[in-house]
Automatic annotation (TrEMBL):
Keywords: Oxidoreductase. GO terms for cellular component: membrane; mitochondrion. It comes from the Eukaryota. GO terms for molecular function: D-arabinono-1,4-lactone oxidase activity; FAD binding. It comes from Puccinia striiformis f. sp. tritici PST-78. This is D-arabinono-1,4-lactone oxidase.
Length: 534
């Protein structure tokens, strides 16, 4: 492995005295030096009061900030849109935001690649790529994240043969902890490249990203509903039944909504006054009516199931619904779906890829998501269903879900810290709503805790790195070293991190909590003074 720490920082930085360094940084500093800055994430749940938030406009300014951190022995974290529902981006020392480093750098039509600044929002990347007749092959539910943040946490979409966003990265440019700059890819700096494709901001500040695209395409979305038992028996076939398949399990009605997305040459649906009105009404319902109703369940918890049942039948139930089936083979299921399609002639959705992949997730909410080995999906779902049924039998109805569980398969990759490293996975996600910024109740914490405990106990859970979780070094080592193909990859990541940041510039509470061996409780990063991540 190349000795990255041997790369010297620019001589000009060494020549600057500290006061001159601070003067150069004042124009991009959010607050005066005698007043702390304030940061909170999108949901408002996670907050920090750093010494300063810097908004650099170029790579040289990032080098200046890191040089200041070195001289003052400060920690440093980078954030984009602040969408991560965790304290991953938080620091009490220095933070930087890359909003002023966004936009297109270069397009290669022949190679179908686009290089952008890391602060570019994915939604802006989607527009830029569309202008050049290009699109990413897969996207998640939203495109509010920055490209750098999406790469650092290996966010995902859905698709049996489609990997996480980071698998589409051709090269990265980073500023390392010593203020040196390096560009890495599969052939140059491969180990740092693999570590940084899901690096959690621990290997350096990503400034430029070159992404591999395909020609712009439309997606056609079809959907149907089937009973839970039929779904889990046929999960593998269902997950492979289209290019992209996402599934939503509604426990209150014991139904799973299956959405199949396939590329199509058909033209996109034309907007009409009717569709525009429907979209406006749905947004009004999501952002105002639904929170108001859920707020009422704070005082009448048992009404949650009734509300979710009504929502499913009035708003979410597909035109095609196969009911009351106990035993069925996949071929029979596909035949029934085709028959129902001919009988009912449902209107499928056709639109640009981003418009189908993305959807309005509503107002700020709480979320938990983790990945488990693909082949264990059915067993894990059955176990969680048993837990929910037991909750329903409790006085008062026990813990309730506000939203269907999202179920999405993702292809395997070779990115060391990616949840899908060395194995195809299924992501399982829960959402619990807030109401106009207020907590409906604190039950979501117990729901998430139990869900995580179930997935950790038997199903080799790997967390969605952008989201809050309680995994520690021991549990992560166990889940990442599950197969022979994956042995030592977790340690390889830590070794690269130790090499490029030996003085722990990029650490914070989140990292200490989850990555320090022997640590089982949250603790301040100041305790790391003489520690080493091993």
């Amino acid at each position: 492995m190349q000795d990255l720490t041997a790369l010297p920082p620019p001589t000009s930085l060494k020549d600057l005295d500290t006061e001159e360094l601070k003067n150069l940084l004042r124009p991009i500093r959010s607050t005066p030096e005698n007043r702390r800055a304030h940061f909170q994430n999108w949901s408002g749940e996670f907050k920090a009061n750093p010494l300063a938030i810097f908004q650099p406009e170029n790579e040289h300014q990032i080098k200046l900030i890191l040089e200041l951190c070195r001289r003052e022995s400060r920690k440093f974290r980078c954030f984009g849109s602040g969408h991560s529902p965790s304290d991953l981006a938080c620091s009490d020392d220095y933070m930087i935001n890359l909003d002023h480093m966004s936009g297109l750098i270069e397009v290669d039509q022949k190679a179908k690649t686009m290089e952008v600044w890391a602060g570019t929002r994915l939604k802006d990347f989607n527009q830029l790529s569309h202008q050049h007749n290009l699109s990413l092959s897969v996207l998640g539910s939203i495109s509010e994240q920055s490209v750098g943040g999406a790469i650092s946490t290996a966010i995902h979409g859905c698709g049996y043969d489609y990997g996480c966003i980071s698998t589409y990265v051709e090269s990265l440019t980073l500023i390392l902890a010593d203020s040196s700059q390096v560009t890495v890819n599969e052939s140059e700096g491969q180990e740092l490249f693999k570590a940084s494709l899901c690096g959690l901001g621990l290997t350096g500040v990503i400034t430029r990203v070159k992404l591999r695209c395909e020609h712009s395409f439309h997606l056609e979305e079809t959907s149907y509903a089937i009973p839970f038992d039929v779904f889990v028996k046929n999960y593998d076939q269902i997950a492979r039944s289209a290019e992209h398949v996402r599934m939503y399990w509604y426990p209150q009605v014991d139904q799973v909504k299956v959405e199949q997305l396939n590329r199509t040459a058909k033209p996109r649906d034309q907007s009409t006054w009717g569709t525009l009105l429907r979209d406006k009404l749905m947004r009004c319902f999501q952002w105002y009516t639904q929170p108001a109703i859920l707020l009422l369940t704070k005082f009448l918890p048992t009404a949650t199931d009734l509300y979710m049942t009504v929502c499913y039948h009035l708003l979410n139930k597909p035109t095609i619904s196969i009911e009351d089936i106990d035993e069925i083979h996949m071929e029979t299921l596909e035949g029934l779906i085709k028959l129902e399609t001919l009988k009912r002639s449902p209107k499928n959705r056709i639109n640009t890829s981003a418009s189908i992949f993305n959807f309005d997730c509503g107002p700020p909410h709480h979320t938990y998501e983790g990945a488990i080995p693909y082949e264990l999906t059915a067993e894990a779902l059955r176990e969680f269903r048993s837990f929910l049924l037991a909750e329903n039998r409790k006085a008062g109805g026990g813990l309730k879900m506000h939203f269907p569980m999202e179920i999405r398969p993702v292809a395997a990759d070779n990115i060391w810290l990616s949840p899908s490293c060395g194995q195809r996975v299924t992501y399982l996600g829960l959402v619990q709503f807030k109401a106009f910024g207020m907590e409906i109740n604190e039950d979501y914490k117990n729901l998430f805790k139990t869900f995580e405990k179930i997935l950790s106990a038997k199903f080799y859970l790997r967390p969605h790195w952008a989201k809050r979780h309680s995994q520690n070094f021991k549990s992560l080592e166990r889940s990442y070293n599950r197969s022979n193909d994956n042995i030592n990859n977790f340690q390889k990541f830590l070794d690269v991190r130790n090499q490029v940041d030996p003085h722990f510039r990029f650490l914070n509470d989140y990292i200490f909590r989850h990555f320090v061996k022997g640590n089982h409780h949250a603790s301040g990063v100041e305790d790391l003074g003489h520690s080493r991540i091993i």
